Amino acid sequence: MVHTPYTRGRVPGLARAWLQVFVGQYQPIAGSDDCAWLATRELTFPLFVLTLHSVQGGMSVGPSGFSVKDCHGPEIWQNKVVEVVFAL
User: Fold this and answer.
1) Staple 19 to which of 5, 8, 23, 35, CB 3.0 to 4.6 Å?
2) Exposed/middle/buried for 15, CB within 10 Å: 0-12, 13-18, 19+?
3) Backbone angles phi, psi at 36, to 5 degrees
4) pTM over cut 0.85
């Protein structure tokens, strides 16, 4: 894991607590083959791009602070984002 100010100290615990209190918990979803859902199997690049462009306003931000707006640009940027996400 690459250590950043967001992966050290109290930030990870605070993010988990925020998600637990304000987002809630959901049952795990099954993959398309009724096995465990794996991003590397379920999330194809065309589906990623379709999802990226369907976010209203392009300003959605996840717990890490990464913004969907950061992904808009040439396809080569989008490919790199997918590579990095799958490498985590």
Assistant:
1) 23
2) middle
3) -60, 145
4) no
Q: Within a 13 Å sphere around the CA of 20, how many CA atoms are in the beta-carbon half? A: 6
SS (H, E, C) the chain: CCCCCCCCCCHHHHHHHHHHHHHCCCCCCECCCCCECCHHHHCCHHHHHHHHHHCHHHCCECCCCCEHHHHCCCHHHHHHHHHHHHHC
End-to-end CA distance of the chain: 7
Q: Using one digit for the tens of pLDDT, what is the confidence trace for 8-25?
A: 677 778 888 888 888 877
* Token pair belonging to 76: 């080569």
